[in-house]
Amino acid sequence: MADFEFAAPVELDEALRLLSGTPGSRPLAGGTDLIDQLNAGRRTTGLVVDLKRIPVLMRLDVDGDGLHIGGARSCTDVQQHSAVRADYAGLAEACGLIGAVQIQNRAAVAGNVCNAAPSADTIPALISLSAHAIIRSQNGTRDVPLDEFFIGPGQTVLNDGEILEELVLPTPPDSSASAYLRFIPRNEMDIAVAGVGSYLEVDPNSKVITRARIALASVAPTPVRAREAESHLEGKVLSDEVIDEAAALAPNSASPISDVRGSAEFRLELVKVLTARTLRKCAERIG
Fold first, then answer.
1. What are the start and end residues of each CATH 3.30.390.50 domain in the chain?
2. How many Å is the Cα radius of gyration of the chain?
3. Alpha carbons 88 and 3: distance in angstroms, whole number
4. d(C-alpha 124, C-alpha 271), whole Å
């Protein structure tokens, strides 16, 4: 690993000053991706800025805007939070799938997002739950819907000197639910061949689906929404038949490659199966 300077500020303004003053500097939220990348020479930097000691970046609470997840808060903390388990089940499921427990204890949800791997587990769950990225720099703050945050494998809209300050997820209404599932070759600690995060809102009286969001992982250069399947669901009475119809449409939004973990054809079939299963989990949770 090449030498680099290391800083661990306790104030957000100081971290932003360091990041903007050193071109190519890297923020460290958990480090489970960054340190490995630096060690392998896939990334280089002259300065690493640790964000774990900055109180505002450790935020994890619910207010009138919804759920707030600070940029350095760990997957374990998010997965174990009572409000996440109760109202954002798909995100809790995704956080519990990232590596081993030791990785989850260190890795940040926002770090998983900023690493921008097409196979990342938290991203489909977050997108399905309409998460927004609050981006901060010395020049101010901007708000980006998470489904507009990714521009390529390992690439995001973040500019030099910017950090993901927090993720904000709106409060889900009653008669709504989310779910996340992935397929992996082994039982644990593997990378998703395909992953699907789904979210449904249903009118409690008519059982008509009023809102649907489906996000796909590991089947395109970036996470993508299955918009055709979403449109098919909305306005229809929730049923197994409607779910199967939507699941059949979900692969139309994917553009997978074939690699050592699975063929493109296999991934398309997985999208169909996982979409149906996550939608049925949502339906069960809504009751």
1. 176-286
2. 19
3. 41
4. 12
Domain 176-286 has CATH 3.30.390.50: yes
Q: Do the Cβ atoms of 197 and 113 come closer than 8 Å?
A: no
Strands (E), 111-258: 132-137, 140-145, 150-152, 155-156, 163-169, 176-183, 194-202, 209-217, 224-225
**Topology of domain 55-169, per CATH?**
3.30.465
What gap in Å lies between CA 187 and CA 206, rounded to an integer?
Answer: 39
**Residue 182 in 3-state DSSP?**
strand
- Which tens digits make up the pLDDT trace of 235-285? 999 999 999 999 999 999 999 999 988 999 999 999 999 999 999 999 999
CA 212/CA 82 separation, integer angstroms: 24
Phi, psi torsion values for 194, nearest 5 degrees? -160, 150
- Taking each helix axis from N to C terminus, what angle separates 264-286 and 240-249, rounded to the nearest 10 degrees? 150
pTM, two decimal places? 0.95
CA geometry: angle at 51 spanning 48 and 56, to 5°? 155
- Residue ranges of the chain that CATH labels 3.30.465.10: 55-169
Q: How many CB atoms lie within 10 A of CB 30?
A: 26
| 276: number of Cβ within 10 Å | 21
Q: Which residues of the chain have pLDDT under 70?
A: 187-189
The residues with which 205 forms a beta bridge, in sequence order, are none
